[in-house]
Design goal:
By secondary structure, this protein is of the alpha/beta class. It is built from 2 helices and 9 strands. The strands form 3 sheets. Strands 5-4-1-6 form a 4-stranded mixed beta sheet, with no helix packed on it. The chain has a 3-stranded mixed beta sheet with strand order 3-2-7, with no helix packed on it. The protein starts with 19 loop residues before the first strand and ends in a 5-residue tail after the last strand.
Length: about 120
């Protein structure tokens, strides 16, 4: 099964939390087409089914939103602009990484390969 997300440690299976997550009313990408279905996620963060009867302790109303798998960016140059926003101005790498991570996650990118030019 595909992993949708990982629950924080305090909400993981061993914490006593029963049930999972239900994402309702969104347009879900299923087999290359969009469908109006509910996505059910089990306690461990795995997709349990579509329109299934998995108990849910949390619900997300995705009305008007697309429910998609995470986007993978295999060649991202944007990190260079976080390290040096303009010529002669440098930002510490850890701060630049943090800023870059926030931006990619906000845009649905879950995996990124940062590329940096050495010149």
């Amino acid at each position: 099964m595909n992993t949708l997300f990982r629950l924080p440690a305090d909400q993981d299976r061993g914490s006593g939390a029963a049930g999972g997550l239900r994402i309702e009313r969104g347009r879900v990408l299923v087999d290359g087409q969009f469908a109006d279905v509910t996505v059910d996620v089990d306690e461990s963060g795995h997709i349990a089914g579509l329109d299934s009867d998995v108990p849910a302790v949390r619900r997300i109303d995705a009305d008007g939103l697309l429910v998609l798998p995470g986007i993978v960016d295999i060649h991202g140059d944007a990190f260079e602009r976080q390290m040096m926003p303009r010529p002669g101005v440098g930002v510490p790498v850890d701060n630049a990484l943090s800023d870059s991570d926030r931006k990619v996650v906000a845009n649905g990118i879950t995996t990124v390969v940062h590329s940096v030019t050495c010149s």
